[in-house]
Design brief:
The complex is a heterodimer of chains A (294) and B (396).
Chain A (H helix, E strand, L loop, with lengths): L3 H8 L15 H15 L7 E5 L7 H4 L3 E4 L5 H11 L4 E7 H7 L1 H10 L4 E6 L34 H8 L3 E6 L3 H12 L5 E6 L3 H7 L5 H11 E3 L11 E8 L5 H12 L3 H22 L1
Chain B lengths: L23 E6 H11 L4 E4 L6 H13 L3 E4 L3 H13 L4 E5 L1 H17 L3 E9 L5 E5 L4 H6 L8 E3 L4 H18 L2 E7 H5 L1 E6 L44 E3 L13 H22 L2 E4 L6 E6 L2 H14 L4 E6 L1 E3 L3 H9 L3 E6 L5 H8 L5 E6 L8 H9 L1
Parallel strand pairs in B: 2-3, 2-4, 4-5, 5-8, 7-8, 12-13, 12-15, 15-16
Antiparallel strand pairs in B: 1-9, 5-6, 7-14, 11-13
The chains are: A alpha/beta (294), B alpha/beta (396).
The complex binds iron/sulfur cluster.
């Protein structure tokens, strides 16, 4: 694992004031660390990374990272990212969202982005609650859990983010937790390399609201909960029953939206000279992207 | 009576240099023309969601964009469409979407984002009747105030409204120029009649169009500030993502570097510049034409398709010996307030035909400091305003 000090100097913005907006012990910092290490390990040029986020505690991540960064509106990060990626296929577009952000207000964009299968990497930080607005119920809050808008316990069924992404057509789906740091980093790395849409669910802790209101305790207690209540998907199903599974659930070879679009353009362009120019432009961008990826 | 003011027609901008012999004439629909004009203006990216009466814009571009090696994508809804064109614009694309009433309502959220983050893009709204699902797809001009104030919070915006298919072509091109030049979303406010009507249009060649192009490269050693206060124009040049500057873009109020701030001084500086950049551009942005105003004691003021009604009523009134003039507004946001004040104070009566229950007339009323008689001739039943009704208002 990359040592922390050089990573900070290399990947974080020198002109940003620390400490961060996050509560001490929040899982958001761990997810950001995993992402930065994964990007660094692959040697991707910072100029070619676009980090896009929605609204919420996780949405503040891009402000600290030294890339092209885009903090969008609530729930819409994937739609902004889609436009950006289509305009600039040479950029590595990475999207960070929270569970409320991506699945409640952004649910429609979530399923359609999975379906569209454009090569981007999205990370959903799933802490089962709205942290920034003060502990309201989210689409992943478990039944009977307490939130400020579910004072008698939540009665809505939660989404399983990873399964939703899988059935909606994402090329890559994986899940880990902020306790399983190496595993999470590894899954993010795989996602960054994927052609097609990669969705990574990072189970995280909001001890300030979810942990406190549901009497789970502080950050360490919540990390322990992740350790005790999750299991690798490859484990014997009998042994892991009642546990949340971790690992890679989907890893498909797909053509991806961009390549499909390129085929379509080749069919549509009638002017031979224009077609030649267009291909050259694309190849140039591909080369650049490959060079970046090393 | 009357006012001697010069028109500020589109031709004054000098963006299109029509070359006799090199104009390609076609009998085209407004929506088709809007799509073709976007291609001429260099639109690289279209993200949209189908809705009548604007769908032909998307249909034509779904066929034409791939032919040109550019991007067309059908998004999952209008919220996503608006988001996608902002993302694409930050990637360096000239981008556009087209919609109608219900879709325009959904776009308001991210339209405000484009204003705040100062991202150039073009939004076409082919207006239809009524609030909610309303009366599809009868025409109306009921979205003027929504265009001005639809997204929350104080903000400036530019909106242009064509009155003919040739003007659809020209104002689409102008929209892309204004969007890039002033780093702002520009709304092209059409209506169902303009969108679906067919007229003879003369297309210029691409090389005969000369509009503002984003040309920002990072200088060696430059500390790029996307929201710098240091430019005379108050429009800091926009550098696309991926060009080496690694800056931050947000819908939060931000400092010169783009980082969120609630510092009162920085908030005020940001807000002032947002307004000032448009104010400084007014000489270019405000487009209008005046007809027979020199000796007029009555003025018709209108926009969009209702201008055609007004012009016919003016002619009929002139035949009857009435001294009637006409103001055709091409820029509807912001309004040419100074010109309008002069017109209003130079006549005895002002008549405002528009296909709504009274929107432009409220703005005219606001500018009417001399208490000139003001008559609104409106429709809100899906029918165009009738010239006879305007004539009656002129005669009364
Ligand atoms: S409120 Fe919760 S999610 Fe937000 S920073 Fe604090 S612990 Fe993290």
């Amino acid at each position: 694992m990359e040592r922390t000090a050089p990573l900070i100097h290399d990947m974080l913005r020198p002109n940003k004031k620390f400490p961060s907006v996050w509560c001490p012990g929040c899982g958001n910092g761990i997810v950001l660390g995993c992402l930065l290490r994964a990007i660094k390990a692959q040697g991707i040029d910072h100029n070619k990374v676009a980090l896009v986020s929605g609204i919420g505690c996780s949405g503040r991540m891009p402000v600290y990272a030294d890339f092209n960064t885009l903090h969008t509106t609530h729930g819409r990060a994937l739609a902004f990212a889609t436009g950006l990626k289509l305009a600039r296929p040479d950029l590595h577009v990475i999207v960070i969202m929270g569970d409320g952000d991506s699945l409640a207000i952004g649910g429609n964009h979530f399923i359609h982005t999975c379906r569209r299968n454009l090569s981007m990497t999205a990370i959903v930080v799933n802490n089962k609650i709205y942290g920034m607005t003060g502990g309201q119920c989210s689409p992943t809050t478990p039944v009977d859990s307490v939130a400020t808008t579910a004072t008698y316990g939540n009665i809505d069924q939660p989404f399983d983010i990873s399964h939703l992404a899988a059935v909606a057509g994402a090329a890559f789906v994986g899940r880990s937790t902020v306790f399983h740091v190496r595993e999470l980093e590894n899954i993010i790395s795989q996602g960054l390399n994927k052609k097609g849409f990669a969705l990574i669910e990072a189970i995280s802790n909001c001890h300030t609201y979810f942990g406190r209101m549901n009497r789970i305790g502080q950050a360490p207690d919540m990390l322990k909960w992740m350790k005790d209540n999750t299991a690798p998907v490859l484990m014997d199903p009998e042994k892991r029953k009642d546990k949340v599974t971790r690992g890679v659930f989907v890893d498909k070879e797909t053509i991806g939206f961009l390549q499909h679009y390129e085929q379509l353009v080749e069919k549509a362009i009638k002017n031979k000279e224009l077609l030649k120019q267009w291909k050259q432009k694309r190849e140039h961008k591909d080369d650049e992207a490959e060079e970046q990826a090393g | 009576m009357g006012v001697k003011l010069e028109s500020k027609p589109i031709s004054k901008l000098g963006y299109i240099n029509y070359q006799e012999g090199n104009i390609y004439y076609v009998f085209h629909q407004g929506n088709e023309t809007c799509a073709e004009a976007a291609l001429l203006a260099g639109c690289d990216f279209y993200g949209g969601y189908p809705i009548t009466p604007s769908s032909e814009v998307a249909e034509v571009l779904s066929r034409r964009m791939p032919q040109e090696g550019r991007v067309f994508v059908q998004m999952e809804d209008e919220i996503a469409s608006m988001a996608s064109i902002i993302g694409a614009a930050l990637g360096g694309a000239k981008s556009m979407t087209a919609t109608s009433g219900p879709g325009f309502s959904l776009m308001q959220e991210n339209l405000g984002y484009a204003v705040t983050a100062e991202v150039p893009c073009v939004v076409v709204n082919v207006q239809r009747l009524g609030p909610s699902t309303g009366g599809p797809t009868s025409p109306a001009q009921g979205d003027l105030m929504q265009t001005k104030w639809g997204t929350h919070g104080d903000h400036p915006i530019i909106a242009l409204s064509p009155t003919s298919i040739q003007e659809v072509l020209e104002l689409t091109i102008v929209s892309f120029d204004f969007a890039e030049r002033y780093r702002t979303p520009v709304v092209l406010l059409m209506d169902e009649i303009i969108g679906h009507m067919r007229e003879r249009v003369g297309y210029p060649r691409k090389q005969d169009i000369n509009i503002f192009e984003r040309k920002k490269y990072l200088e060696p050693g430059e500390d790029y500030k996307p929201y710098s206060l240091d430019y005379d124009s108050d429009v800091p040049p926009l550098l696309s993502f991926g060009e080496g500057a690694r800056y931050h873009v947000t819908g939060l109020i931000h400092d010169e570097a783009g980082f969120p701030t609630l510092n009162k001084k920085e908030v005020t500086e940001w807000y002032d510049r947002l307004y000032r950049k448009i104010d400084k551009g007014l000489d270019r942005i405000l487009l209008y034409e005046l007809y027979n105003m020199e000796d007029a004691d009555t003025a018709i003021i209108s926009f969009g398709i209702s201008v055609r009604v007004g012009l016919e009523a003016m002619q009929k009134a002139r035949q009857k010996g009435l001294k009637v003039g006409m103001v055709k507004l091409l820029t509807v946001c912001p309004l040419p307030e100074e010109m309008l004040r002069q017109v209003i104070s130079g006549v005895k009566k002002v008549v405002v035909p528009e296909m709504n229950r009274g929107q432009l007339v409220l703005e005219i009323d606001r500018l009417n400091k001399t208490g000139v008689e003001l008559i609104h001739v409106g429709t809100s039943d899906g029918e165009i305003v009738r010239p006879e009704d305007v004539l009656k208002a002129l005669e009364d």
